[in-house]
Amino acid sequence: QVQLxxxxxxxxxxxxxxxxxxxxxxxxxxxxxxxxxxxxxxKEREFVAAIEWSTDTTHYADSxxxxxxxxxxxxxNTVNLQMTNLTPSDTAVYYCAGLRFxxxxxxxxxxxxxxxxxx
Length: 119
What we know:
Layout: E1 2-7, E2 10-13, E3 18-26, E4 33-39, E5 46-51, E6 58-60, E7 68-73, E8 78-83, E9 92-99, E10 106-109, E11 113-118
Parallel strand pairs: 2-11
Antiparallel strand pairs: 1-3, 3-8, 4-5, 4-9, 5-6, 7-8, 9-10, 9-11
């Protein structure tokens, strides 16, 4: 079993940047891609970005390209999400997920971290 824990959320103003971290613990020998999703109030959870297990190839939702950047810190067993030029529409709970190799479907989730962007 792998446990994922998100950190780095908070309250920021429009135009600010914020860096989220997803740290894995438990059976870290289990292989999986890692993704970030977000869920805004009254909306469905949506895909933000993903990074592949062995190649560190990155994938982004079209609306996030150029503003959000996903990366992996191998030494800390952490996947980061750097978010820039934030707007109130980015307000959501951000979740980290372990993704299956086939189809990139979520296999397990972290508990989420709240990001609030004020105008």
